[in-house]
What we know:
Elements: E1 2-10, H1 17-29, E2 34-36, E3 41-44, H2 47-61, E4 67-75, H3 83-96
Antiparallel strand pairs: 1-3, 1-4, 2-3
Helix pairs in contact: 1-2
Amino acid sequence: xxxxxxxxxxxxxxxxxxxxxxxxxxxxxxxxxxxxxxxxxxxxxxxxxxxxxxxxxxxxxxxxxxxxxxxxxxxxxxxxxxxxxxxxxxxxxxxxxx
Length: 98
C-alpha cells in the first residue's frame, strides 16, 4: 500500500516546520520507501508497517501540542511493488507521447 499523509500540530504557533521535520524523520528512519513534498509525505509498504509509521509520525509531530490534525489517503493494491516510482513513471511516459 501507499499512504500519503499530512500531519500538523495545532495550537503551537505559526511555524509547523519543526513538528513536520520530527514526523518526516520517523518516516525516513523507518527504512520504508518514502517521498516528501510541500504538502504530503508518502510511504509505501505493508499495511501494518505503514500504519505503524504513520502513528509514530503523528505522535512525533504532536509533541507539545494540545491537538494534531491528520489528513491521510491510501492506495491499497495487492501485488504492486515500487508504486511510488512506477506510478510517476507511467504518467511521465504518457506525457512524453504528447
